[in-house]
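Thread: Modeling a multi-component assembly for a lab meeting

Hi all, long-time lurker, first post. My supervisor asked me to bring a structural picture of a complex we are working on to next week's group meeting, and I have zero experience with this. I have the sequence lines for every component (454 residues in total). Could someone generate the structure of the whole assembly? Inputs are pasted exactly as I received them:
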Amino acid sequence: MIRPRGPCVEEVMNALLDHARSAMPTGAPPARRGTVVTHLMEDEAVPDGDELAGLIRKVAQDRDRQAYARLYSYFAPRVNAFLRRSGLPANTAQEVAQEAMLNVWRKASYFDPARAGASTWIFTIARNQRIDHLRRARVASSAEGEVPVEDEPAPSGETLLLAAEREASVRAALKALSDEQALVVRLAFFGDKAHSEIARELGLPLGTVKSRVRLALGRLRALLEAQS
Amino acid sequence: MTIHHHATDETLMRYAAGDLDAGPARVVAVHLAGCPACSARLAQFEAVGGAVLEQMEPVPMAPDAFAAALGIIEAEEAGRAAPRKPAAARSSSGRAPSLLPGGIPIPAPLADCEFGPWRWIGIGVRASAVRLPEDPEARLTLLRVGPGRKLPEHGHVGTEFTQVLVGSFSDGYGRYLPGDLSEMGHEIEHQPIVDPEGECICLAALEGGMRLTGFFGRLIQPFIKL
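Re: Modeling a multi-component assembly
Sure thing. I ran the full set together rather than chain by chain. Output:
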């Protein structure tokens, strides 16, 4: 699916291909199919939501390394980008992204497509990993090593829309926002640091940026409610 | 339980983005645990997060990152065959089971917290400091305020999040019953009064900087290492 301002499919594919190639020493023999996966495959296309969900299921049920390789090549660079944008230094972003992707493997059996789409589920894993990292950094004396991050509050199933419906309505609402508002919503997800950076870049007071965030969220809410 | 006062979109968006401080995040978690409407709205914001993630311009990982991940996974898979040692039971020694009167349980999202003793803060007002394992510096407080107690008007630097657990209070913006969440922005001066029917217990956290001269600041001052 092509979305406003998102990279076009071709760009994404090129990036993936570049990445896959860079993961492989020049002149290395191609990956042996169906055997041990040692690096990313070269011929991947951009998967859609159902396909991504299917890959997570394969990881959960069959511990499928090929499926994991595809998930990794799609999500790791995006999680990395997200973490960078949220203010983590390059090395840290990559470490946290790596840990998030390991959690995708470890927690795959908890993925429930009726509750969240694949990207949404992985987003929450990356988010929790970032929270975990920031708190670890603060709690320097953490001898336990494992800092708990609260689990998602259990949603009462009957009141939640089916995930697929929700994903579709959220995407439609994001598309219906003006370019500026869609940008503001995206930036809002990168956190406070991003707010102040935007404020500086645009030469706007921080308060103005925040009130634009509020306006954009109000519009998003109106769009979501109009659909339901 | 009908909930009349909900989390704002901004708060849910920030919760979804992982951008709320630990204290306010716990208050919101307690609200979410009892509020299907806010849980559904949170799910929408998390879906926005999923869409944002998909739209990120990929930043390549190091060339050997995937091989490293596989190495860790294979080692862990090999270890899975071996019997796992049981996870150590989490200590709950600091937890006071009688903290909430009437056998009302501590809300599940606070299960891993430690609660300080009730301390006298002012006439008819007691407070218990809640210590979060993930952030010992987080300012999260249980407040227990007597019936009809009028609290001085106050403002604060950041947003104040208050979730009612027991009883009720009212301010210029309405009446807050168990399950309700009050979010008071820094621009707001409000004067909460506990309703006369009984005492009110709520969970409160203040975001951002502090103004210690304010009511809430004075309340939590005893718990802060200055």
